[in-house]
Amino acid sequence: MKTIITYGTFDLFHFGHVRLFKRLKKLGDKLIVGVSTDEFNALKGKAAFFNFQQRQEIVAACKYVDEVIAENDWRQKRNDIIRLNADIFAIGDDWKGKFDDLSDICNVFYLERTQQISTTEIKNNLANR
Ligand code: C2G
C-alpha cells in the first residue's frame, strides 16, 4: 500500500485542486490531505473565504481523497509522514525545492500547477464584476 501526503489551504475548491488530487492518487493507493487550519492560514498570511471545517468537509468529499488531517504548523510534516507511514510527499511546483529536506524519509515530488486558475484569481474576477 503506497501512501501519498500533501498539504494546503484549498479555499474556494476548484479544478486546479481536483487535478492535483487526481494526479497524486495515481502515484499510489491512499491520499492523505492536510488542510490548513484558520490559525495556520493567518501565519501563512492567507484569509480563506471558507473556514477550516468547511474546507475540510469539501476536500474530504473529493473522490480522490482518503483521509483529511489538520495542518496546524510548518513543522508537522516530518512527524505526519512518519506517523502515517507516507511513502510520498507531493505538492504543487510553486513550492519547488522547499520541502526537499523530507527526502530522507519519503519521496518528494513537485507537480506542475494547473494554469489559468487560482483562488486569488477567482476572488479578483468576482470582485471586478
Ligand atoms: N494548486 C495547483 N494548481 C492551481 C492552484 C493550486 O496545483 N491552479 C496546488 C498548489 O500548488 C498546492 C495545492 O494546490 O499544492 C493547494 O494550494 P493552496 O490552497 O494555495 O495551498 P498553499 O497555500 O500552497 O499551502 O504547508 C504547505 C502549505 O499549506 C501549502
UniProtKB/TrEMBL annotation:
Gene Ontology terms, MF aspect: nucleotidyltransferase activity
Gene3D superfamilies (alphabetical): HUPs
Keyword Nucleotidyltransferase annotated: yes
Residues covered by the Cytidyltransferase-like domain: 5-124
InterPro entries named in the record: Archaeal_FAD_synthase, Cyt_trans-like, Rossmann-like_a/b/a_fold
Keyword terms, alphabetized: Nucleotidyltransferase, Transferase
Name of the protein: Glycerol-3-phosphate cytidylyltransferase
Species the sequence originates in: Shewanella psychromarinicola
Organism ancestry: Bacteria, Pseudomonadati, Pseudomonadota, Gammaproteobacteria, Alteromonadales
